[in-house]
Amino acid sequence: MAQIRHALSTRRADDFAAWYQEVITAADMAEESGVRGCMVIKPWGWGIWERMQRLLDARIKTTGHDNCYFPLFIPLGNFAREAEHVDGFAKEMAVVTHHRLIADGKGGLMPDPEAKLEEPLVVRPTSETIIGDAMARWVQSWRDLPLKLNQWANVVRWEMRTRMFLRTSEFLWQEGHTAHADEAEAKEHTLRMLEVYRAFAEEDLALPVIAGEKPENERFPGAVETWSIEAMMQDGKALQAGTSHYLGTNFAEASGIRYQDREGAQTLAHTTSWGVSTRMVGGVIMTHGDDDGLRVPPAIAPWQVVILPMLREEEGDVALIDYCEGLRAALAGKSALGEPVRVLLDIKPGKAAQKRWDWVRKGAPVIVEVGGRDKDNGVVSLLRRDTLWDAASGKPAFAVPTREEAGEAIPALLEAMQATLHAEAQERREASITRGVSDFAAVEKHFAAEVKFPGWVEVQWSKPTGAALDKVVERLKTLKLTIRNVPIGSMPADGPCIFTGEPAVERVLLAKSY
Amino acid sequence: MAQIRHALSTRRADDFAAWYQEVITAADMAEESGVRGCMVIKPWGWGIWERMQRLLDARIKTTGHDNCYFPLFIPLGNFAREAEHVDGFAKEMAVVTHHRLIADGKGGLMPDPEAKLEEPLVVRPTSETIIGDAMARWVQSWRDLPLKLNQWANVVRWEMRTRMFLRTSEFLWQEGHTAHADEAEAKEHTLRMLEVYRAFAEEDLALPVIAGEKPENERFPGAVETWSIEAMMQDGKALQAGTSHYLGTNFAEASGIRYQDREGAQTLAHTTSWGVSTRMVGGVIMTHGDDDGLRVPPAIAPWQVVILPMLREEEGDVALIDYCEGLRAALAGKSALGEPVRVLLDIKPGKAAQKRWDWVRKGAPVIVEVGGRDKDNGVVSLLRRDTLWDAASGKPAFAVPTREEAGEAIPALLEAMQATLHAEAQERREASITRGVSDFAAVEKHFAAEVKFPGWVEVQWSKPTGAALDKVVERLKTLKLTIRNVPIGSMPADGPCIFTGEPAVERVLLAKSY
């Protein structure tokens, strides 16, 4: 096997964190903005998010939700109403205190002391309280229920340590908010949206995830139940990729969401909320990226096929572009994964090799290079991003179909790649979950500092609460572990709790996480 | 002619401002949020904006722009750099000064004095300065130009007097920002995007607009040229519906956007910016609304066809819904205006008459009512929202095609309605522009306080600048008038300036405005 010269300078195996940053830069997805904790999402990163938005939005609409939009600013007083919610969120938020700037007399500007707000406004960290106010106005009778809303918005949580896509002060997300007549329906809806997230992650992002309930200590502030989908990154850490909360009547009580039921009685509604954010882009990178950059699953690739004519700034270029345009048009008229194929004919100036490797780093699923000789032979040089290298030669594994064959084969190839990326990630995850660990010493050994990429461990526990749970959390913290969730459909418990020694009641996943 | 009982309580002719508010409430588009100057955009209002976004976004992408995303917060210092820009914007902005809340000791919360930001952050009123910073990083060589970016975002300008959609503290928009190698290309692009806006307004929103250059006093802060599209509302006032700015090298200089040109010299780029916002939704209401509520142009209607089975909560409902579903499926498989027909089968509980009038007020283009007798006769009762009433009887003008005829005819009907709404608005506007007014006394008379809905007046002027222009602006202000723009393609000047008496150089439109 020949030595491969990868397109990135950092290997995942050597320094996963540095590799992650390098992918983001090399794939030209995002960069620091100079504004504390905020990033600039560049066209390729935005294009992926835009695809994710479009696909998830369709799923949210299909399940009967209406999109709408609520204010960016939330009056301070709203946060004082729902006690637990405040405890969870009141700490780090951006607070608007003034509505005007004036000259500071030193050539600069300052907030105008005359324009101080009577009540400060908080930049929304999430919108339960303000949407709850609206629901209280909109819900009068049982006929108004269920009320199923969603918004795509930016939110701000002041973060001390930020990482692009994974944790930024401003981030983008959708937040769904629903109100229901009773507990059973609200709980059912909480799980329905969890399932929407699971299907979106698996089918659109090719991200295998484990759906389950979070333990009490990991609940959203004010929630009665919090459910999550958890994805495993290539370093074995967990990424919480989406959450769905059953909020009971806590927010309904705080906002006064009451309805007249069929018997005429005033009744509190039961609410849910659920969200998926730009952090999922980070999950895609850390699941599908390799030592040559990103590999974008075709369903969310802004361009699924990039055609690169090897232009030489000479007369022959016209015929070459024409030849490529034939393939572009053929592909644009075909469908893959239920949508027209997204194909770019890239004729920007630049050296051919440079452009090829730029698209490799960006992770365009299929790259088609066409030189003058290809044209003369009626063929194209086709590179699959998922299986980039020919191991024997250490060179890119070009296939050389005829132009017509390429036009016919690429749509199915894109669908196959989508499945392959999922299968690859799923296989890796399954190989990295250790089950049947039955005492805490074994957990300690499994997650010892010197073990690289230890993956997840499934253990049984007695689901302690209160102080006993605090003790478990503290103990896990010494190993930098958290309980990810109780997977839906996992085997029943059949042994002792590894923390308390009492009979276990369920199985949980332990992992390091983002 | 019989008396018509309209669906709204306010007539446009009686109180246009009150009518506008009533449409927004009656069509369930938006409402006050309780947060100063911010509104809640409800599903029907949001659905219209979402359609507008999708159609305009496609036009922006077709003209070669990449979407991306820049931070919500802009450091205060950015505003001190571009002097004119600061003068224009520094006044009313939301200023973030703290990043944490703590208990105030009285059961409430307050900004934590320990968490005061060293440099306050301004919630973006527009993004020239922060996008300029990025452009300075991204543009190195002539090969990087043109750089054509767009973002969809929320922005905040603290407004003292707000009106839903037209002027709110937080609003939503797209802002395009481009950098070019030279003045000619940047100016050309400024006009190209103005043309994109014109086509979007006319073709998608059925809004006739007049594209032209704004006078010097109405320029965007820091711009060299500002161009606009101006629409006439039914009260004869103008609404600036979109602007496109040639910024010269002003922002390039402030942010340092320099590139190495083909000769190797460091050269300042020329930039443009252009935006369209949620205020355009207000323009749609005030152009197409009538005394029965909104009329949504089919191209931007979230639902173009609403089918209302007259359910009676009895066994026969199943067959009736089934009959309606046949029409729904037939329509959903057809296209109108280049997209699949958007058709809703509305089986929500509620009285049939109530539901019909709700959809009339919302302005769904085609409403199809189906009762048991219709089903038995194989027909449907079809109501066109643009020609709602039968003048002779004073009743809704139902047509009664067979179900199959309706399925065949509705797509073409939607396209005809789109054209009809545009033609109607264009005719009204043309009838309300008075040309050939050649002295200021005539302008005063035209816009006298007692004249209702005076429309616009075209006059000739000598294009004064500086103090002479200030005098013109002041004089117009006494009549509550502004110069809207110098229409592209208007007749050359051929007389004296109505303000200065000097030979005129061009024609301008005068109007009251929103």
Task: Explain what this protein looks like in three dimensions.
The structure is a homodimer of 514-residue chains. The first copy, chain A, is α+β, with helices and mostly antiparallel strands and 514 residues long. Chain A has 3 domains: 199 residues, Bira Bifunctional Protein, Domain 2 (BirA Bifunctional Protein, domain 2, 2-Layer Sandwich), CATH 3.30.930; 114 residues, 3-Layer(aba) Sandwich (Rossmann fold); 78 residues, C-terminal domain of ProRS (Translation Initiation Factor IF3), CATH 3.30.110.30. Helices cover 33% and strands 25% of the residues of chain A. The first copy, chain A, has 14 helices and 29 strands. Chain A has an 8-stranded mixed β-sheet, with helices on both faces. A 4-stranded mixed β-sheet of chain A has the order 20-17-21-22, with helices on both faces. A 4-stranded mixed β-sheet of chain A has the order 25-26-29-27. In chain A, strand 23 and strand 24 form a beta hairpin. In chain A, helix 2 packs across helix 6 and helix 9 packs across helix 12. Chain A is globular, with a radius of gyration of 26 Å. Strand 5 of chain A pairs antiparallel with strand 5 of chain B.
